[in-house]
Structures are given as structure tokens and as C-alpha cells.
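call fold(seq) -> C-alpha cells
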Amino acid sequence: MENKPPLNIILCAPRGFCAGVDRAIQIVELALQKYGAPVYVRHEIVHNKYVVDGLKAKGAIFVEELDEIPETKAPVIFSAHGVAKSVPAEANSRNMFLLDATCPLVSKVHVEAQRLFTDGFEVLLIGHGGHPEVIGTMGQLPEGAISLIERHEDVAGFTPKDPGQLAFVTQTTLSVDDTAEIVAALKARFPQIRGPHKEDICYATTNRQEVVKQVAPLVEAMIVVGAPNSSNSMRLVEVAERHGCRISVLIQRASEIDWSLFANCNSLGVTAGASAPEALVDEVIEEFARRFDISVRSSVTATETISFNLPRQLRSEPLAL
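ret:
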């Protein structure tokens, strides 16, 4: 019998799909069931190739901009990351049938930014430039009404119109620790700055980072299943490195594993970003089981029970009496 080296695997929990991602994927699947193919989706519904490819196979057509969509009665779905106000305005001008899969926690930030602007505040957005969520949030307000702060260093270079009328919101998928640093720098420089009533970084991002902080010091390597364009997945790699795990890697599929990194590994942490399905975690575990004599246990730091309502058009019709 083949002698496999032993490997202890600690599975981080929570991991994988959050309520916003789950809802967004359901919206596409239910729209396909109810209205038939095709349905059009503006931008990747969530940042995961496996998920997107699965939906394409069922009849979803992904586009980056609305002008790629022909005149159609088919549903047009906005991704979980949210969109600028100009996008639904354009869709309505073309009489498109819209289904909005924006995560409700992203919508909360949109509402917050709009309320602050209406109340006369200059708004700062802490986030990563070019990310679809940041583009969508900045696009809630007129040009120049909202400024992006990406790094701690950006705070010193920012000059407000009126330091007494300054407020900030944040992207929902940031590093909790990095954001706390930026917020501390903002408050030190602008003591009157107003923050959100409730943390903008979403519960799922926070929970996934928290368990990685617990597990990273206990293992020699950490695998994060996720996509390189997924902000929350990239942050998990950074958090693992920062908390003492010398080998921390992001992979999209088990086929991407660089086995040379794990040749002498005795302990491994495994987690997944909020847009990565559990099937991909299972795939990774199976590949390790082929090469190692594995034992698997979970490290659980929170239990998630949140779910979000579907758009009215997709809710099950009540049965007629």
C-alpha cells in the first residue's frame, strides 16, 4: 500500500458564498427558469469563472455594457457589485426589463452616500479604484462630489472643501484592519468627519477574515479558493500572510495548485472567498487526499443565518385558493 505523508487540514468557517452572492446567482437561475434563455447580465454576476461559466451554459449572456445588448424583451440583470445611476437610467430609456441583483449591503452604501451628499457633506469613499463596486458607488453622486481614498497615504494628500462637512463610506469587501487604519488617519486629520451609522464592510467579509486570522498562525500554508478580480478573496490571502502563514496562495481551481509549495507541508488551512462555491473547496480537498493522508477539521468563528429577499418579479406566486 502506498505510504502517503500525513497532512492536517483546517477548514475555515464561515467560507464561500455569502447571502448577497447566493441571491445574485439565484436571480439569474430563476430568471432563466421563469422567462427562458437568453437573459442578459451586465458584468460577471459574481467574480467567479466557474459560476459564470455554469450560468452561460444555462443560457445567460454576459456583457460589460448595455450597448452590447440588442433590442430585447429578455431580462437584463445587474451584477451583485452594483452600478452607477446612469446605468439604470440608460436601461429605462431603452425600456429594458430590469432585474437588479445588487447586494443589499452595497445598496445600503449607495443610499448612505446619497443621503450624506443631500445633507451637504463632501463624501470620501475608501476603496480600490477600478473595482466594479467602487465605480457603482462613485456613480451614485454627481462628478466631483465623491473622492476615492485607496491607501493610508492618500489621507495626507487630500484637501477637503470644508473639513467640517466631510463624511466617508467604504467598499464592502475591504481588509478590516487596513480600513481601520485609514479611518483612524482620517479621524486624526479631520476630527469632525462623519462615518457610517453601521460598519460598511459587510458581515461576510469580516467573518471570513476573522477565521483566517485564527487559523493562519496554526498552519504552514493557506489556500484561498477565489478569483484574482475578487476583492474579498485577495484580502483573505493578505490577512493570512499578515497573521503568520508563510505560504498563502489564491487559486481558482484545484488544477492551479503548485504542488512544490506543499511538498513538506504538515498543516494546511483552506478557505474560500464569498463568490467561490463549496464544490471548488471539495475539489481542492480531494486533490490533497490523492497525495496525502489527510485529516480534516473545521475552525468555526461565526454562524451566518442572513438571507436577502429576491426581487418581487421572481418571488413564488401565492397559490390561488
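The longest strand covers residues 6-13.
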